[in-house]
Design a protein that fits this description.
Blueprint (H helix, E strand, L loop, with lengths): L18 H17 L6 H12 L6 H7 L9 H13 L3 E4 L4 E4 L9 E6 L5 E4 L4 H9 L8 E6 L2 H5 L1
The structure holds zinc ion (ZN) (2 copies).
The site of one zinc ion has 6 residues, from loops.
């Protein structure tokens, strides 16, 4: 990871999951896949696991490098296809302005996503946005919106007080 080099701490908002918490999150993803008749294949599961374990958003090349349990890198298309799947199902989000990925912290299923991004430590905290006004303006104009992702940049509380 190349973020947080000049920053005081990167422990403010995103906490990587370990142990039973991680197992629980994976099991949840597996059962959600089952109900919609999708398969959490080994590569999809591994990429989700890496995202859930991370303390900050990960770039695709971080995932490619960390993919192998024995340290061997993945073939890039394997990771990109897995990311595409995880995004489509709402298990992960791409933060465009960072070109990085985070696991969904709001239990997925294709909701509109919004992030508070810290320019200092690189933490990205997901929150539930209210796009009611935008959605009704769009439908009044005859638009059908496929997705909205809000990326609000600034300083997290830990970096502000440091
Ligand atoms: Zn989400
Ligand atoms: Zn910060």
């Amino acid at each position: 990871m190349d973020m947080g080099a000049e920053c005081h701490h990167a422990d403010s908002t995103q906490q990587g999951l370990t142990g039973p918490e991680l197992d629980h999150a994976i099991a949840l993803a597996e059962s959600r896949c089952m109900t919609i008749q999708e398969r959490l294949t080994a590569p999809r599961r591994r990429v989700l696991e890496l995202l859930l374990q991370a303390d900050a958003p990960l770039k695709a090349y971080d995932l490619i490098a960390a993919f192998g349990v024995q340290g061997e890198p993945a073939k890039p298309p394997t990771v990109y296809r897995a990311l595409e799947f995880l995004e489509r199902l709402g298990f992960a989000h791409r933060i465009e302005s960072m070109n990085a990925y985070v696991p969904c912290r709001m239990d997925g299923h294709g909701h509109q996503a919004a992030f508070l991004i810290c320019d200092c430590c690189g933490a990205a905290q997901e929150f539930e946005p209210d796009f009611t006004a935008q959605l009704s303006a769009a439908s009044a104009a005859g638009y059908e919106i496929a997705s909205i992702t809000l990326e609000a940049r600034g300083l997290c509380s830990a970096c502000r007080s440091a």
